[in-house]
UniProtKB/TrEMBL annotation:
<dbReference type="GO" id="GO:0031412">
    <property type="term" value="P:gas vesicle organization"/>
</dbReference>
<dbReference type="GO" id="GO:0031411">
    <property type="term" value="C:gas vesicle"/>
</dbReference>
<comment type="similarity">
    <text>Belongs to the gas vesicle GvpF/GvpL family.</text>
</comment>
<dbReference type="InterPro" id="IPR009430">
    <property type="entry name" value="GvpL/GvpF"/>
</dbReference>
<keyword id="KW-0304">Gas vesicle</keyword>
<feature type="region of interest" description="Disordered">
    <location>
        <begin position="133"/>
        <end position="163"/>
    </location>
</feature>
<protein>
    <submittedName>
        <fullName>Gas vesicle protein</fullName>
    </submittedName>
</protein>
<dbReference type="Pfam" id="PF06386">
    <property type="entry name" value="GvpL_GvpF"/>
</dbReference>
Length: 270
């Protein structure tokens, strides 16, 4: 069985060896591969799973994809605790060590520029959800009001009453949505002022994420480690007095959204 090289991230030389127990994708130990003063963190993976043809099939297997993503993130998290890594796209693989070094040589300037820009910084994620939000395309959205509030919804005595109640529900939803959007705008401005950079991502699809409520803001913020506590405190202050709105904070992460490397293609194993 041929072993390919799975690359997790590129970083500067570590001041200490990787944890001996640090395992990556397929349970393989992660190791450092040095080239021109940069380090690629790699592990060996079987070509039966990671060849170009095999990956096309594997990426449709949700259990395999979830396990691989977790293992990939486990290595990135370990690196983030001790250095500033530049995470590469999941399932970035190369034929052997020499092919990894060729990739590093071609992209050396971009790696060094990104490392200089991101040194000592981490990414924090902030999401805002409108709770009890009606789903996309879910009718007029008002028929289940009684079920959500625990009380019986008033019955329309006539067609005119029904239309009036429906207009009232629509107006109430529109007002709630306006308030949530305004809250998200103000919070994003406040957090952006505390961060060195920010990125707005597309709202999450609740059917894919499994998160309750309607995602209004999905943003990433680049923050110096030394100011992370201040940033977290600012987010926490918003969580206590915002009924109907849920704020979620995640991180600190490696600066995925700010590397400038996302557009680069993954390596070819052949």
């Amino acid at each position: 069985m041929t072993a390919l090289r799975y690359v997790y991230a590129v970083c500067r030389p570590l001041t200490a060896p990787l944890q001996a127990e640090l395992r990556g994708v397929a349970g393989a130990p992660a190791r450092q591969l040095e080239h021109h003063g940069l380090i690629a963190v790699v592990s060996q993976v079987p070509d039966s799973d990671f060849s170009e043809e095999a990956l096309r099939t594997r990426l449709e297997d949700m259990d395999w994809l979830t396990a691989t993503a977790r293992a990939h993130q486990n290595v990135i998290d370990a690196l983030t605790g001790v250095t500033t890594p530049l995470p590469l796209r999941m399932a970035t693989v190369f034929r052997d060590d020499s092919a990894v070094r060729v990739m590093m040589e071609k992209r050396e300037d971009a790696f060094r520029h990104a490392l200089d820009r991101l040194d000592g910084r981490v990414e924090w994620g902030v999401k805002i959800f409108m709770e009890n939000a009606d789903g996309e395309g879910g009718g007029d959205g008002g028929e289940d009001t009684g079920a959500r509030t625990g009380s019986a919804a008033p019955k329309a005595m006539s067609g005119r009453d029904y239309l009036r109640q429906r207009r009232m529900r629509t107006t109430a939803r529109e007002e709630q949505w306006r308030q949530v959007e305004e809250f998200a705008r103000r919070l994003h401005e406040s957090l952006s002022a505390q961060a060195e950079d920010s990125r707005l991502h597309a709202p999450q699809n609740p059917q894919l994420s499994g998160a309750a409520g309607r995602n209004v803001l999905n943003a990433a913020y680049l923050v110096p480690r030394a100011r992370s506590e201040e940033f977290v405190t600012l987010v926490d202050r918003t969580k206590d007095d915002t009924p109907g709105i849920r704020v979620e904070l995640t991180g600190p992460w490696a600066a995925y959204s700010f590397t400038g490397l996302a557009e680069e293609s993954a390596g070819e194993p052949t």
